[in-house]
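hey so i finally got around to running the thing on that chain from the lab meeting. sorry it took forever, my laptop kept dying and i had to restart like 3 times. anyway pasting the input first so we r on the same page abt which one it is
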Amino acid sequence: MLGWLARKIEKTRFAQSAVEEQADLSPFKDKPTVRLVIGLILIGLSFILGWPAVGAFGVISVWLKEPLIFLIGGPLTYGFSWLVWAVGMYFTGKESYKYGRIFNRWLVRRFVEKYGSGKTIR
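ok and heres what got predicted. didnt touch it at all, straight out
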């Protein structure tokens, strides 16, 4: 199954260029920009603010026997977590796309070299 998929992928221009150019992860050695770091921190924070915070509101509301804490605080916190995520995505911007493309090229090259036919079709 993996061989079949690799042979299909290796026929694409994306995979062919990744193999030809020996795509690697060397750009990740460069120091990230402050903007990218802030964006990644905000995205990570949004995951902490999401369901764990909603669950904490649920526990607190049961403990204090106040259901309004959960009914109001849960959705507000969850909505705020989406807002924090969106701001984090704004901060990462084009740079996250660039790093994602570098990683995907490397991943496709490794996959095709391991499971493909061993020859790229031009």
